[in-house]
Amino acid sequence: MKPETRTLVVIPNDPLERYEAKGEVKDRYFNPCDFFDRVLVLPLAERDSGIEAARKMAGRAEVSIHPLGRPGPLGWQRVLRRARDFVSCSAAQVVRGYNPLLMGWLAVKTARECGAASVVSIHADYNLRRNVRIHGPRFLLSARGLYQAAHSLLGLNRTSIGRASHVVCAYRFPALEAARWRDGGISVIYNRVDLNSFQPGSRQQNPAAGPLRILTVGRQFAGKDPEPLLMALSRMEHTRMTLVGDGPFHQRLVELAAALGISDRVEFIRRVQHEHLPELYRTHHVFAICITHPGVCIPVLEAAASALPVVVNRPLWEPEPEVVGELAEVVEPSPAGYLDAFTRLERDPALRQTSGEQLRRRVKSVDADRSERQEAEIYRELCGQVAAGRKGGKNR
Fold first, then answer.
1. Rounded to an integer, what distance in angstroms lies between the CA atom of residue 188 and that of residue 207?
2. Where do the domains of the chain lie, and which CATH numbers do they carry?
3. pTM to 2 decimal places
4. Residues 105-131: pLDDT tens digits?
């Protein structure tokens, strides 16, 4: 008897062409351990030219992209019907929404109507109160703020989180939020970091070589503003800094570096493709970030995997930084706080090396292979439940 084709329907957070533009395309991101035979991607957009990204993210599976269109106030029913038709016609076993807002709601609703399982991802903080505190009152007027407000007012978390077959959180913090809406069926699976790719480089093996080189990676906007890092750098003589990222603060940061007279020691790189990131970490001594969002961001995990000491500000919402915890250099989110840590690490190469080695050992708990297997096992269990349910329905 021919085995049933395993089919996954993905409703991504963005069109895949945006993942590609940001350099965030990872092997088998949608298809851990090549578990599925077929992957259908349903972006909420009029078009999506990211088929090459889709092929990489789907691994060995047959993959196709089917834009659902923009859902707008008058387009809801059309988008819902199209999603339902794709899930039904493909006989998909699982529908995954890559956020708990519109994508998660759509994934859960279509899956329940078509006898499939649903998985909702929470990879960011969707708490409206915290986001207003981080971004300011103007956040309420942004597209993301309006979505969050509407989602909250309409009580849609009851569906997107409460009725999903399983909820996958990228760190511990959103798991606490998810637990408000459901009992069980919540997993914390950190973003995959491949320890075989992110390895210590020559600067970690010989930390005393050359002037101190500091790396920061992240979107340059409210909640991830690297200004205190530049201010700290301006009070040092020979230290160099690389800032990787783009965003609404980018030009202001370039102008700030010029005003501080440190442009010759600062390199701005708007984006780096994911496959080139490991080499970038290997050519630096220290990783630093200023972040007010909860949880742990991917660059911190990548830096730890690369055996770089991590300098991070004291968390606003948690007792200590997630995963890296007490092994990080935790500072006040001020130029003086970062300057103190940078100076200490500059003067003590042995401390840099010891800290980096400890962090690499710590981050092994979130190694890509382990995270990928954990995610594939969730899909295996859900597909088994769906198969049993459909078989039972045929026998009635």
1. 34
2. 7-192+367-395 (3.40.50.2000), 202-366 (3.40.50.2000)
3. 0.88
4. 999 999 999 999 999 999 888 888 888
